[in-house]
DNA sequence: CAGAACAGCGCCTCTCGTATC
DNA sequence: AGATACGAGAGGCGCTGTTCT
């Protein structure tokens, strides 16, 4: 897909050239208008805009000049019709206001554009089956060639499971249990790895009483992190000091403070995201507990803010942009007719060690 | 634009009905396939899907049944071509990770969909003229009928000013000085009103030493709020206790604390957004100043978090969704051929009084 | 109320050509 | 002669209009 610069005010140009006295100003120029102006056949123009090999440089130059002066732009509908493909993919984003889905969409956007595909995306916040189905229909009505579903929560996954996908699709979701589709394509950040790295890190620091501030239970990531947290502790013969569910917001992190700390003996808290960690740190400072001297706090996401928290937050970096790009890459391969086997893409998160976690305090707090 | 429910697994249906032994499975069904199955002409099918009045209920029912069993979906490219319109509008969003642009886009999305228009949106973060121009070309290549530009910062506005817009467009931006276009359509939340309401509120509470935590200077909203802040104070014969520029982030709010408070005598701080207010409140608690007893802090945006801050934040509510909807409404009117005069749309913000601002302390702090 | 017939939207593709080195 | 560079023309993509029965 090549991009040309429009000479200003040449958009609604007259097409009087080819239609004599009609002078239908306001109508976009035609491929034949270009041909006429360049003194070539419409064939040649077509060959130029489609990068056909056997075109002489000077002819190409003449045509491109004509294109520029007319402000010609191929009619995408006509192209789609003749080629029998729209060059468009559709995306549904659930909870687009959240860090992960938002950045994943960014990656999806970049990747599809770079591949020469148009993207139509729709947001979903509503959990109703009807709303989700309407979003799907809305995309299918555009004859998208493929579908990318950013589905962090269960409701959207459930709809996908029930109705199935009839065109090439990729589902970006952690909780894969709901996808029974045989030839399904699925992508996610490896939550288990990220969680294990973090919990192992806390264990190495000597912590044995670790609490978990989890995300909402209808989020796949939250479920996975919580489950892996418990499993990793269990593998070391430990049990959680406490588990409190938040809603990803800083406020919920603040509010979860007492449940995580009071009487639990926790010396470290693994928060399922950075924002809640922020709120929790705030709570701890309010009750006079120092981070990390009294309590270690770690997060997940590596938001821009996390580097500047006080103290700077130890967290897990997830490359959502890359996730989106990988997903689109594989989706496009399928659209172009690659094999159709079940496939699962994973990106690896990485531990970002800053200073919000430290060794287990020598003397236990009394509380 | 009506939405139909696809019977599962009926998408890639055979079209053997009309093409005999060819049985081109994998090809989407045709309007003629539907006609044949329903025992009517393709004309009638066209009339049904376009809600033509003169169709008998039973005929309509037969056709709709055929549509359903075949999983027929009109080819959007063919429709666009025949109608000579794409039914698509394009949107560019600068800084989509920020609260305002993000929610404005949400409104744009909802409004265009409700009006039966498809939406293509692209994100811009880069300030380079090339990147912005490419985004524009990308949308124009899709033959969008109109353009919605969410332009909170100056660089995008500058590009718009320089190249002009050749198709119906609406610019959502506060800083209108850069738009010389004669018949331009522009929309924004009334920043001056919001700022005045807030500053007046602080003045009524008796504050005379008020500091301002502003947003980045290349943001239109930030410039407007700052200018109005200064003007409103001046109208009361007052000068700012301090002005510090942040970058919208909580961290910058935290970092701005000393500059706003130390030695300024400020008893109130007007933060240009809620997130910075959050950081500032954190700073204040760290240095032992109570909000609002010692220092009043107010924000702007009314983010979901603001209601749960401690103390709950007094702020200004901006209805970005409505802004987006209004903008699209007026844009569509232009696309449909309404008058083309210069037009400016404004939505009114409202004051949300919570408890982070109180009366001026009786005794001045010593610092 | 609905069918038949046809033109047309703008572009692509394919088949033949002719022309030039 | 056998390449390469381009033209002419037709048919088709799926749907929408209109007009005439």
UniProtKB/TrEMBL annotation, chains A, B:
The keyword DNA-binding applies. Keywords: DNA-binding, Transcription, Transcription regulation. Residues 346-367 are annotated as: Disordered. It comes from the Bacteria. InterPro entries: HTH_LacI, LacI/GalR-like_sensor, Lambda_DNA-bd_dom_sf, Peripla_BP_I. GO terms for molecular function: DNA-binding transcription factor activity; transcription cis-regulatory region binding. Residues 29-83 form the HTH lacI-type domain. This is Arabinose operon repressor. It comes from Propionibacterium freudenreichii subsp. freudenreichii. The gene is lacI1.
């Amino acid at each position: 897909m090549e991009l040309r610069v429009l000479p200003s005010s040449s958009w609604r140009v007259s097409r009087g050239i080819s239609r004599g006295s009609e002078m239908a100003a306001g109508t976009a120029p035609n491929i034949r208008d270009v041909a006429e102006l360049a003194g070539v056949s419409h064939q040649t123009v077509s060959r130029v805009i489609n990068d056909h090999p056997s075109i002489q440089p000077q002819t190409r130059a003449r045509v491109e000049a004509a294109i520029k002066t007319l402000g010609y732009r191929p009619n995408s509908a006509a192209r789609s019709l003749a080629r029998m493909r729209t060059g468009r993919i559709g995306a549904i984003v659930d909870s687009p206001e959240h860090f992960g889905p938002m950045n994943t969409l960014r990656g999806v956007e970049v990747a599809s554009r770079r591949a020469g595909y148009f993207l139509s995306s729709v947001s979903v916040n509503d959990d109703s089956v009807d709303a989700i189905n309407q979003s799907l229909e809305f995309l299918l009505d555009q004859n998208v060639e493929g579908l990318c579903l950013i589905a962090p929560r269960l409701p959207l996954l459930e709809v996908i499971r029930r109705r199935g996908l009839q065109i090439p699709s990729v589902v970006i979701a952690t909780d894969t249990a709901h996808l029974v589709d045989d030839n399904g394509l699925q992508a996610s950040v490896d939550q288990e790895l990220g969680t294990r790295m973090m919990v192992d890190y806390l264990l190495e620091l000597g912590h044995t009483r670790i609490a978990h501030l989890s995300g909402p239970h209808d989020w796949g990531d939250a479920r996975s992190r919580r489950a892996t947290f418990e499993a990793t502790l269990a593998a070391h013969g430990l049990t959680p000091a406490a588990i409190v569910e938040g809603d990803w917001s800083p406020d919920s992190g603040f509010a979860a403070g007492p449940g995580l700390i009071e009487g639990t003996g926790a010396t470290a808290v693994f928060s399922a995201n950075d924002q809640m960690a922020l709120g929790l740190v705030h709570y701890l400072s309010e009750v006079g507990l120092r981070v990390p001297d009294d309590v270690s706090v770690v997060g997940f996401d590596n938001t821009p803010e996390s580097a500047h928290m006080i103290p700077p937050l130890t967290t897990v970096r997830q490359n959502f942009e890359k996730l989106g790009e990988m997903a689109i890459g594989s989706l496009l391969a399928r659209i172009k007719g690659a094999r159709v086997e079940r496939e699962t893409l994973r990106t690896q998160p990485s531990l970002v060690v800053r200073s919000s976690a430290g060794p287990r305090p020598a003397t236990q707090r009394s509380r």
